[in-house]
Specification:
The protein is an alpha+beta fold. The chain contains 17 helices and six strands.
C-alpha cells in the first residue's frame, strides 16, 4: 500500500487530520461494579459535580469513565480538570487526543463531538490493501465509511465499507468512491448542524475545514443525542434552571443554580405588587376587581407563553431571519388582540353577572373595563412573548434564559396596570 495510507496516531495541531490507530493495549473490561456505578453517576450529574466525583480517582479510571460517555460529554467533563491533568488523563486512552482536540472549539459545536476517523486512505489506495489494513481496525472500531483524501488531505470521496467487500481487490478507491460528499464543519453550532443533517440520516458524517481538509468524523447518533439534551434543557432555562443541572446534581449546587433566579423573580413580583398597591383605594371601593386580577393575569401569561414558545422554536430552527422581527411582533400582537377579545367577551360576561349579584353600581361599565383590559393586555403579552427572546438574542444571551421570568413580570404589570387603571379612571 502507498505509504500515505498508513494509519497512525499523532498529536493533532490545528487544521490537521484526525487519524486513527488501534491501541496497542486495550484497557481491561469494565467489570468493576463500583466503577460502573461511578459511570452512571457521572452521566446523571452536572459537569462540575462529575469532575469532583472523578478527581480522587486514578487517571486510568477517569479515562475509562470518560470513554464510556459520549464524546461531547467527555470533552466537557475533562475541561473541568486542570490543564496538566487533562493531558495525563488523555494519555491513558486512544480517545484522549480527540478529547483534547475538542477543547479548541466553542461549546455546542460539532468540533466538541468530533472523533478520529478510523478509516482514512488516499484515493489511489487499492481496495484489497485497504480491506487488509482495516482488519485490525475493526477489532476496536466500527467502520461505516472509508474516507478518501488527496495529497493535500482534502476529502475527495467516501466509500461505504460494504461496497469494498463487493469490489475487485485491484481496483482503487477512486474508482468506486462517491465524489463530493456532504461534510460538516467543526465550528458549526449544533442547531445549524441538525438542520443540515435532518434530511440525510447518515450514521456518520465527515468533519472538514472550510477548505475541505478532513479533520475527523461525528456520529449521527451523537449529534441527535446532544441536540435532544439541548432541547430538554431549554424548558428549564426559561424558568432559571441551569442547563447543566441534572437529577443527581447535589442539592448544594442545585441551590446555587436556582436560587439567584428566584431572588430575581421575587424582585419582579414586588414590581407587580407595587402596581396593585398604587390602586389600593380602587380595589377597596370595588372589591370585585380583586377577584378578576388572577383571571386576567393568568390569561395574559398564557398568551405570552404561547408567543414565547413559537418564537423560541423559530429561533432554534433558524426561521427568524434578519428583518423578520417586525413581522413576527406584528403577528403576535394581532393574535394577542384577537385571543384577548374572544376570552375578554367571556370574562366581561362573568364580570357583569357577578357585578349584578354584588349590587355594584356600574355592572356594564365594569364588564367593558374587563373586556378592554383583557384585549389590550393579551395584545401586549403577545408582543412581550416574542420580544423578550428576540431581545435576549440581540444582546448575545441565550434567548431561553429566564425568559419566562421576564415575560411573567411584563404581563403582570401590564395586565394589572391596565385593569385597575381603567377602573380608577372610569369609575372611581
Amino acid at each position: 500500500m502507498h505509504s500515505d495510507s498508513t494509519l497512525s496516531i499523532r498529536k493533532v495541531p490545528s487544521r490537521r487530520l484526525l487519524e486513527f490507530k488501534p491501541p496497542t493495549q486495550l484497557s481491561p473490561a469494565m467489570t468493576d461494579g463500583t466503577l460502573q456505578t461511578l459511570i452512571d453517576r457521572v452521566r446523571a450529574t452536572d459537569l462540575k459535580s462529575a469532575a469532583n466525583l472523578l478527581t480522587p480517582r486514578s487517571d486510568q479510571e477517569i479515562a475509562r469513565v470518560l470513554a464510556a460517555l459520549s464524546p461531547g460529554q467527555a470533552v466537557e467533563v475533562l475541561e473541568e480538570f486542570p490543564k496538566e491533568r487533562r493531558a495525563t488523563i488523555a494519555a491513558e486512552t486512544a480517545a484522549g487526543p480527540d478529547w483534547l482536540e475538542g477543547h479548541r472549539y466553542p461549546e455546542r459545536t460539532v468540533g466538541r463531538l468530533m472523533e478520529r476517523a478510523p478509516a482514512v486512505f488516499p484515493e489511489s489506495a487499492r481496495i484489497g490493501e485497504v480491506v487488509e489494513t482495516l482488519r485490525d481496525v475493526l477489532k476496536t472500531r466500527q467502520v461505516v465509511y472509508v474516507f478518501c483524501i488527496d495529497k493535500a488531505r482534502h476529502l475527495t470521496g467516501v466509500v461505504a465499507f460494504r461496497e469494498l467487500l463487493f469490489s475487485p481487490g485491484e481496483a482503487t478507491l477512486e474508482s468506486v468512491m462517491v465524489r463530493g460528499p456532504f461534510a460538516l464543519q467543526p465550528g458549526t453550532f449544533l442547531p445549524e448542524a441538525m438542520r443540515e443533517v435532518v434530511t440525510r440520516h447518515y450514521p456518520v458524517y465527515p468533519v472538514c475545514e472550510p477548505d475541505g481538509t478532513l479533520l475527523g468524523q461525528v456520529k449521527g447518533q451523537v449529534l441527535f443525542e446532544q441536540q435532544a439534551f439541548e432541547i430538554s434543557a431549554q424548558a428549564g432555562s426559561m424558568v432559571g434552571v441551569d442547563s447543566e443541572e441534572r437529577l443527581n446534581t447535589p442539592w448544594a449546587r442545585s441551590l446555587k443554580f436556582r436560587h439567584p433566579w428566584l431572588q430575581l423573580n421575587l424582585l419582579t413580583a414586588f414590581v407587580a405588587g407595587a402596581v396593585v398597591g398604587v390602586f389600593e383605594s380602587t380595589v377597596d371601593k370595588i372589591v370585585l376587581l380583586a377577584v378578576f386580577i388572577p383571571v386576567l393575569s393568568g390569561q395574559c401569561s398564557n398568551t405570552g407563553c404561547q408567543a414565547l414558545a413559537v418564537t423560541l422554536r423559530g429561533i432554534t430552527l433558524n426561521e427568524v431571519v434578519p428583518g423578520a422581527a417586525p413581522r413576527l411582533l406584528a403577528k403576535e400582537a394581532w393574535l394577542g388582540f384577537l385571543n384577548g377579545a374572544l376570552v375578554g367577551l367571556v370574562a366581561a360576561a362573568a364580570m357583569y353577572v357577578l357585578a349584578i349579584q354584588k349590587s355594584e353600581s356600574a355592572p356594564m361599565l365594569l364588564a367593558l373595563i374587563t373586556f378592554g383590559a383583557m384585549t389590550l393586555s393579551c395584545m401586549v403579552s403577545g408582543i412581550a412573548g416574542a420580544g423578550v427572546p428576540l431581545l435576549l438574542k440581540r444582546l448575545g444571551a441565550d434567548p431561553a434564559t429566564a425568559s419566562s421570568i421576564f415575560l411573567t413580570t411584563a404581563t403582570d404589570v401590564v395586565s394589572m396596570g391596565l385593569f385597575l387603571g381603567l377602573a380608577a379612571w372610569l369609575i372611581v
